[in-house]
Amino acid sequence: MHNPFVLLTTRLLESLIKAGNTFFVRQTYNRGKNPLDPLNKAAFLFTHYTDYSRAKTHYDTLDNDPNKFLYNIHEAEHYEKLFIAAGQPEGFHIFSPLVQQPWKPTPAIAAKIRTYISQKMNWTPGRNDNVKADLFVQFGELFITLKYGIHEVKLPLADIENF
Q1: Which are the contacts of 61, defined by CB distance < 8 A and separation ≥ 6?
Q2: Model pLDDT for residues 26-63, shown as the tens digit of each residue
Q3: What is the reported pTM?
Q4: 10 Å Cβ neighbour count for 3?
Q5: Domain check: are 21 and 57 in the same one?
Q6: C-beta separation of 58 from 68 below 8 A
Q7: Which of 116, 137, 107 is nearest to 6 (CA)?
Q8: Of 48, 75, 99, the domain-final residue
């Protein structure tokens, strides 16, 4: 699985807080787990928010995630735990949903995009035509936007990966 997100660091966390983010939603992040690393117990995604209602909406979508948690930096215990997480505790990988820009699909993802378009879409891009692919995040899930001429489609990145 493709993982474009950056590791959460204390420096990044401080910058996010300085920018006005006071709420953080933790969720299980399987894309960040390294199955080849026996010491990697789990991976989590910490999404930042400036207002409670958006953070709570995200949190409420995580019905089946036993690791979900909504942090409020104004609560001392939450603040401390955020910085512990940003320190990358042994056995865990903690990510922030920030993608280094500009994002470009890996060769493997690009090949799957071409296959998906040729088999699922009524698009007929030529060899020299450009199909634009961009990532976006919604409630911690990765989606891809594909654009070709006047056509545009948004779908979960997993649909491309599993095609």
Answers
A1: 139
A2: 999 999 988 778 888 999 999 999 999 999 999 999 99
A3: 0.86
A4: 16
A5: yes
A6: no
A7: 137
A8: 99
